[in-house]
């Protein structure tokens, strides 16, 4: 009887330990808003520096999200010395119609808890996206995120490389 009770106790401990590790992958999620009123992980957007800036625009007769490639360097010599401060992304739509911005790991190997951001911007609108640092470092194994317009498949998106 004691062996059964002991094995049940150990089973419960292993289940609880395993489930808490899965929940630790994300620290609070992504927040979307404007510069004046937005905040992420308790920090207002106005107190953060803009780390990445994307513009939806027309280039050579094509609608694109510019720049086509961006790099976020989180090593200690670059922005990694931020002591856990979130990343702030600015997205602007300069075109005359509604356009989307979709940022995700977009991979068959992406975890179900990986970050996936989808927003729609009206003409001339700018939105800010606050991302906790831990959410960026656990999103994908190869540290590459794709961004595109989820509303229009023919628009050109790009890649974000995260160096950590």
Give structural attributes.
5-stranded mixed beta sheet, Immunoglobulin-like, alpha+beta, 12 strands, globular, 164 residues
Topology:
Blueprint: H1 2-23, E1 31-33, E2 39-40, E3 43-44, E4 52-59, E5 62-66, E6 69-73, E7 87-93, E8 99-104, E9 116-121, E10 126-131, H2 133-137, E11 144-148, E12 158-163
Parallel strand pairs: 4-7, 6-12
Antiparallel strand pairs: 1-10, 2-3, 4-5, 7-10, 8-9, 8-11, 11-12
Architecture overview:
The chain has 164 residues and is α+β, with helices and mostly antiparallel strands. The chain has a single domain, classed as Immunoglobulin-like. The protein is built from two helices and twelve strands. The protein has helices at 2-23, 133-137, and strands spanning 31-33, 39-40, 43-44, 52-59, 62-66, 69-73, 87-93, 99-104, 116-121, 126-131, 144-148, 158-163. The radius of gyration is 19 Å and the shape is globular. It starts with a helix and ends with a strand. Mean pLDDT is 80; it is low at 14-25.
């Amino acid at each position: 009887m004691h062996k059964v009770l002991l094995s049940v106790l150990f089973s419960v401990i292993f289940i609880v330990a395993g489930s808490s590790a899965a929940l630790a992958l994300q620290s609070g999620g992504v927040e979307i808003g404007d510069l004046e009123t937005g905040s992420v992980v308790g920090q207002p957007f106005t107190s953060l520096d803009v780390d990445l800036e994307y513009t939806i625009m027309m280039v050579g007769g094509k609608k694109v999200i510019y720049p086509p490639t961006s790099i976020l360097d989180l090593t200690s010599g670059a922005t990694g010395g931020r002591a856990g401060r979130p990343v702030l992304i600015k997205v602007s739509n300069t075109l005359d119609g509604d356009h989307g911005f979709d940022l995700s790991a977009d991979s068959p190997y992406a975890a179900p808890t990986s970050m996936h951001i989808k927003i729609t911007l009206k003409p001339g609108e700018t939105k800010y996206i606050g991302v906790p640092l831990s959410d960026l470092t656990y999103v994908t194994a190869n540290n590459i995120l794709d961004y595109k317009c989820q509303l229009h498949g023919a628009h050109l998106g790009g890649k974000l490389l995260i160096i950590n």
